[in-house]
Design a protein that fits this description.
By secondary structure, this protein is of the alpha+beta class. It is built from 11 helices and 16 strands. The strands form 4 sheets. A 9-stranded antiparallel β-sheet has the order 1-4-2-3-5-6-7-10-9, with helices on both faces. A 3-stranded mixed β-sheet has the order 8-15-14, with helices on one face. Helix 9 packs across helix 11.
């Protein structure tokens, strides 16, 4: 293999990919295809893009979905070079992959298939993503796989959630169809179709299409009776207990204060709750055929308020992510105050506390059993700051 920063992580990802029945080498041997290795600038992650033809290389780059303008320009330049047959000019590191992934039987294409790979971002829930294309580079579907038993549970959960959402027959949005879910080569594998194309791009702003989807999802999955905030508080308290020994004292105090704040709400404080996507972000959605396409359902949860997905989306917009905590809270309140949400002003702080508790607990629960440094996780410091501000503002009572 060529030298790549984060060698151990890259090597682990290679083993994951080879579980599909492939072999990866640093030199060309008969029967192998050259792949460009593109590394992420902000953290340890890599994309493996096939170079056998310019069109396939250009389509393979669709797996790379940058949100920053500089990264978008770099990708555009690589796509243009690929389409004129000069893909080797941007391919600085190359590996060679041989064999046919055990995915072909999931697709009806008669000609040979091509594949692009993403190693996943370094985290306790890292997984491999595979983009499946036909010989002309048209996108056919995606696969996710992991040898990690914890991630395997998530992939099984996502398959179940996708089937549940398909059964809703949404009018406002498209979602992937499950083509395969199960064990293969020692890894858990989830294969879906897609409506994505090589030129699909995500909307970085919350649009009417996002609104329509969230409203319909909330309407179709809402529990028959609204849930008292105190009941949600009790559920959070149950989740806090098993992770308490793994948290620093300040974190235990913060989570306890948040749960206590919710538990102190009057019994008549009720919230409509239903299915939440769980990771509703600009990069997990795009517009196709006039409707939203929504994927990556592995963190979907039942019995949460619509506001969780609204807040998560707006806080992950590129122009919002680097704002200070106070500004992020103002952005969340503004989004929740929009007339279409139907939310009362008196509910907004409560809803943001619920969102932050959901996100923080998910982060803690993702940690390996021997890890206790939540402050090292992406976004944890900012979430803590926002929660501290809310708790200080309300002095024990959410208004």
């Amino acid at each position: 293999m060529p030298y790549v920063s984060g060698w151990e992580l890259f090597s682990e990802a290679v083993i994951d990919i080879e579980s599909l029945g492939l072999r990866i080498a640093h030199k060309p041997i008969p029967g192998t295809t050259p792949y460009a290795v593109v590394d992420g600038r902000s953290n340890a992650r890599w994309w493996l893009v096939p170079l056998q033809s310019g069109r396939v290389a250009a389509s393979g780059l669709a797996l790379f979905q940058p949100l920053l303008s500089s990264a978008k320009l770099i990708k555009l330049a690589a796509v243009i070079l690929s389409l004129i047959g000069l893909q080797r000019l941007w391919a600085r590191q190359i590996v060679y992959i041989g064999g046919e992934p055990s995915l072909k039987e999931c697709f009806s294409a008669k000609a040979g298939l091509s594949y692009a790979y993403f190693t996943g971002t370094d985290s306790p829930h890292r997984k491999i993503a595979v983009q499946v294309m036909d010989a002309q580079g048209r996108l056919l579907g995606f696969a996710k796989l992991s040898r990690n038993p914890v991630v395997a549970v998530l992939l099984k959960h996502e398959a179940a959630m996708l089937q549940r959402v398909q059964a809703l027959a949404l009018n406002s949005a498209h979602t992937p169809r499950v083509l395969f879910s199960g064990q293969q080569g020692g890894a858990q594998l989830l294969v879906t179709d897609t409506l994505k194309t090589a030129y699909t791009h995500s909307k970085t702003r919350f649009t009417a299409a996002h609104q329509d989807f969230l409203q319909e999802l909330a309407r179709l999955t809402a529990l028959p009776q609204p849930l008292p905030v105190t009941e949600l508080a009790a559920k959070f308290a149950v989740r806090v207990e098993p992770v308490r020994p793994r948290l620093e004292h300040a974190w235990c105090q913060r989570l306890e204060a948040a749960v206590t704040t919710l538990a102190a709400q009057p019994l008549q404080t009720l919230l409509t709750v239903g299915l939440s996507h769980g990771d509703f972000t600009p990069w997990n959605t795009f517009i196709v055929k006039g409707r939203l396409y929504v994927f990556d359902w592995e963190y979907a949860e039942e019995a949460l308020p619509l506001s969780n997905d609204i807040i998560h989306f707006v806080l992950n917009q590129p122009n919002i992510r680097n704002l200070h905590s106070e500004q992020k809270l103002d952005t969340a309140f503004k989004a929740l105050s929009a007339p279409w949400t139907g939310l009362a002003t008196t509910e907004l702080s409560t809803l943001v506390v619920i969102y932050l508790l959901t996100q923080i607990l998910r982060q803690v629960e993702r940690l390996p059993s021997d890890e206790s440094h939540i402050c090292d996780l992406d976004g944890a410091e900012e979430q803590a700051a926002m929660l501290d501000i809310l708790l200080a503002r309300n002095t024990g009572t959410v208004h």
